[in-house]
Write a structure and sequence with these properties.
Blueprint (H helix, E strand, L loop, with lengths): L3 H16 L9 E6 L4 E4 L15 E4 L4 E3 L8 H10 L5 E5 L2 H9 L19 E2 L7 H11 L4 E4 L3 E6 L2 H24 L7 H11 L11
Parallel strand pairs: 6-7
Antiparallel strand pairs: 1-2, 1-5, 2-3, 3-4, 5-8, 7-8
Length: about 220
């Protein structure tokens, strides 16, 4: 079975999306890219995360052609491919329908720096214009709008988060949902006071060395 480890990750992080309240049922999708083999593991279309097994995860090539797996890949395969083509630093994509991020997307609001943890994306989270799900138009909108950020809101749809590995993309999605909730609640209560641009620049610089260093193999 090709990309066995990556397939298991898709299963594991699909369940984590549910556990974290970032989606429901079969909503959203995940993928990861193995650049050495030029193959992508992506969840199957329309199957609840609780029912997906490693062998159900679909393997496609960089053109989206199915290489292995009995199911059709996610209907949003197009924007996964577009993101991998656009950004060589991206090796994982997580798409959610998380409530607060999607609320902002339905209001057509970008997510500004109301809290420094927006730095998981950058100094903000941009908004991609609306396009029908699963279309080439949506794929272009996502790839064009994300720029150098690690997250992008999809108008009237949800959130896309990216990373160098699936864990990082998941963390981006989780933290941005937290910041989206703060921003929405602040807007309900009054006018949010945003983190200043120069402070966000300092935050982003500190984020470069945040966390544990990569340890050498034993």
């Amino acid at each position: 079975m090709k990309l066995a480890a990556e397939r298991q990750q898709i299963v594991d992080y699909g369940l984590r999306l549910l556990q974290a309240g970032l989606t429901t049922g079969s909503g959203g999708n995940l993928s990861c890219l193995c650049r050495e083999q030029e193959l992508i593991a992506i969840g199957p279309s329309g199957i609840a995360y609780t029912d997906v097994r490693p062998e159900d995860v679909v393997i496609v090539d960089r053109q989206g052609r199915r290489v292995e797996g009995r199911y059709q890949p996610s209907s949003e395969l197009g924007f996964h491919l577009a993101l991998y083509d656009r950004r060589p630093d991206i090796a994982a994509v997580v798409h959610t329908h998380s409530v607060y991020a999607t609320t902002l997307a339905c209001l057509h609001w970008e997510l500004p720096a109301v809290h420094y943890l927006v730095g998981y994306s950058g100094d903000r989270v941009p908004l991609a214009p609306y396009a029908t799900f699963g279309t080439a138009e949506l794929a272009r909108a996502v790839a064009d709008s994300i720029g150098g950020y690690n997250a992008v809101l999809l108008a009237n749809h949800g959130l896309v988060a990216v990373g160098t590995q699936l864990e990082r993309a998941f963390n981006v999605a989780e933290e941005i949902e937290f910041v989206a909730r703060l921003y929405y609640q602040c807007r309900c209560a009054g006018t949010p006071v945003l983190v200043a641009e120069d402070e966000m620049a300092r935050v982003l610089e500190r984020f470069k060395s945040y966390g544990q260093p990569t340890l050498p193999s034993a």
